[in-house]
Write a structure and sequence with these properties.
Radius of gyration: 19 Å
Distance between the termini: 51 Å
Order of helices and strands: HHHHHHHHHH
Largest sheet: none
Shape: globular
Structural class: mainly alpha
Number of helices: 10
Helix content: over 70%
Strand content: under 5%
């Protein structure tokens, strides 16, 4: 008759799957809780382009929440007996809230300027190709932000160094950038075709996918830019 060793408990495939599901659900709940003040404000805003600056303010708490979630997902345990996702999330929030805001705030401001210009483009008198250029710049800024979010969540660099590295990796690791782009397209499609709440409700698995796609960025940063 076979026996199960105590040391094997929590290391099997079923245990790892259960640990992942528990971790994703816990981090998702904490992320929504941390971002809830801003998300509640968004629900009160109408779709008027004039509300774009207010929408950006409402999205400010989301940056630290996303950073804390990335930190917790990166440091998650595969062992069912060693699960502490809430503790990891809170630690990530304490460590990364201010660094994340230093990058998240300017990014939101820049994207707000682009979005406001595009929604009032007819009044600018600029040629049509300017709209395409602004849209491309906005998409590039989002991809830069994805790299910056990963870096500031996992490493203790100065904000300007994180910004430079994110710009460097934007070109250096095209596959990681493409993976981030696919996630942004997926989130945009879910918002447009289903509901804007769906990307928020699936934020944890989307962030886990972002981490997976950013493995080369994380590895190079660890090997080349940390002691």
């Amino acid at each position: 008759m076979s026996t199960v060793r105590t040391s094997d408990f929590g290391t099997g495939a079923l245990s790892r799957a259960s640990a992942l599901i528990h971790t994703l659900l816990t981090i998702e709940a904490l992320l929504l809780l941390a971002a809830s003040p801003g998300l509640a404000g968004l629900l009160l805003l109408g779709p008027d382009p004039a509300n774009l600056p207010l929408a950006a303010l409402c999205l400010l708490p989301l940056g630290p929440a996303l950073s804390a979630a990335l930190y917790a997902l990166h440091h998650r345990s595969r062992d069912l007996t060693e699960l502490r996702p809430a503790r990891a999330f809170l630690r990530g929030w304490r460590l990364n809230a201010v660094p994340a805001l230093k990058l998240w705030g300017p990014l939101l401001a820049w994207l707000t300027v682009i979005a406001f210009t595009l929604t009032h483009f007819a009044a600018t008198g600029l040629p049509g190709w300017w709209a395409l250029l602004l849209a491309a710049i906005g998409a590039g800024s989002l991809l830069w932000g994805a790299h910056a979010l990963v870096l500031t969540s996992l490493f203790a660099f100065r904000a300007r160094d994180t910004a430079r590295l994110a710009g460097y990796f934007l070109v250096r690791h095209g596959r990681a950038t493409l993976a981030a782009a696919s996630l942004l397209v997926l989130a945009a499609a879910m918002t447009a075709l289903l509901t804007e709440a769906l990307p928020a409700l699936l934020a944890a698995p989307l962030l886990l996918s972002l981490l997976h796609g950013s493995r080369t960025v994380i590895t190079e940063t660890q090997e080349e830019y940390t002691a």
